[in-house]
Amino acid sequence: xxxxxxQLATPxxxxxxxxxxxxxxxxxxxxxxxGFIGGLLAALSIVFSTFAFNRRKVQKKIKIEPGxxxxxxxxxxxxxxxxxxxxxxxxxxxxxxxxxxxxxGQLELGSPLLFDIGVFMAVIGVVLIFFFTLTNSK
Length: 138
Known about the structure:
The structure is a single chain. The longest helix has 26 residues, at 111-136. The protein has one domain. Helix 2 packs parallel to helix 6 and helix 4 (66-79) runs antiparallel to helix 6 (111-136). The model has no long low-confidence stretch (mean pLDDT 87). Strand 1 (96-100) and strand 2 (106-110) form a beta hairpin. The chain is mainly α. The protein is built from 6 helices and 2 strands, in the order αααααββα.
């Protein structure tokens, strides 16, 4: 598609989609949402770019290959097992760490966030593999 308006709007829409993807990712380990919905939004930002520009141009512009997103996601998934193994807990037991932030209070980080990041990355990779395969079959 050669729409100038769509090409001009794409960077702004991509930025909004990435912002909401990160919001969904970060709130997901406490509430519904998380890695899956965030990954769909992030992949949609890349898919939306292919509507404005050529598929080949978008594939060259993204820094990570879709299959590598899946591999990174699986690595984070396996990494989420380590805190519970080191604490001699059940395999997917959530382990939380409090980091003091001075006047801001404490930052609570946990192993479910690692799991959500893994799902986030894997969903991006699978959606992009699926989409690029469909658009490649012309």
